[in-house]
Amino acid sequence: QVQLAESGGGLVQDGGSLRLSCVLSGRTFSNYGMGWFRPAPGKERECVAAISGNGGVTYYVDSVKGRFTISRDNARSTVYLQMNSLSPEDTAVYYCAATEYTNVQTQDDLYNYWGQGTQVTVSS
Description:
By secondary structure, the chain is mostly beta strands. Helix content is 0%, strand content 52%. The protein contains no helices and 11 strands. The protein has strands at residues 3-7, 10-13, 18-25, 33-40, 43-51, 58-60, 68-73, 78-83, 92-99, 113-114, 118-123. The strands form 2 sheets. Strands 2, 4, 5, 6, 9, 10 and 11 form a 7-stranded mixed β-sheet that branches. A 4-stranded antiparallel β-sheet has the order 1-3-8-7, with no helix packed on it.
């Protein structure tokens, strides 16, 4: 019943910015922790950023700290990923995911629902 719809990907130059959005429908948004994932060597998905159900706790993988910001607007049932200072290494399909845990989760197998992904391409 839960559905996730991602948007905001695109093509940007090295150093540019994008803002990804993901809307959850079907259930109460605040009951879910949310995360953004991308493919990574050695595993299916790497958790780029995650946020607790009430927005009070966040996580970032080391490679994006200081550049990316995850946030959520529970009134809009939307989670965002603001990506600044993008580099070609950030090029990937980014997936929005929801977990029934309301605290922060970083393992992909703990997430229950997944979006279809949105392509981010950073050119040099």
